[in-house]
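I am still getting used to backbone structure tokens and would like to learn alongside you. To get us started, please write out a protein record for me. Once you have written the record down, we can walk along the chain together.
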Amino acid sequence: MDKIDRRILKTRQAIQSTFLQMLVKEGFDEITVRNITEKANIGRKTFYLHYMDKYDLLDRIVDDHIAQLREICDQKKDIGIIEGSILWFTYFEQHKSFFAALFKSKDASSFRKKLLSFTIGEISKKINEDSHPIIDKQIFLKFLGTATMGVLESYVLEEIDRDMESVATQVVQLYRLTLERRNEAEVYRHIEKTRLNDTLS
């Protein structure tokens, strides 16, 4: 049984390794299952024993990255917010070629959706559930998540001419500023509501 497991693992590693090399060199949109099997020196039937298609293969790899990012987010709880942001951006720096290839792809939309959903989920954990902002929470989270993704994509694609620590630090500063403005809006709303109630009574 162990031999079969090792064989399966070895085959999957070969498929993923070949896929990742092609992803960086050729881009996701140009990859076909036939290309992968030829370069990995395996049969098409063998490929389909492990993955449904190239999208399924990509999803599995992206899920692995998100699992690692989730571990980083757990680590961030024990350090400062700026240090945590640097840790987050460091991960994308270490895997820049992979993420750059996906950000450039037109066909890898599931990657964007998964990463955005994960990012919004992590931001949501930091929002006070008992607050009642003027702006709808769902819209607020979508705004912050999309903004974070936009900066991340521009950094990975080297559209931002700044070092990694500078980008990570400024993202935190913008995040804090946005939350401060949101809190100010909540306080103002509370004051106005109290004033109105006093007037009516």
The chain has a mean pLDDT of 84. The two ends are 78 Å apart (CA to CA). The first helix runs from residue 2 to 26.
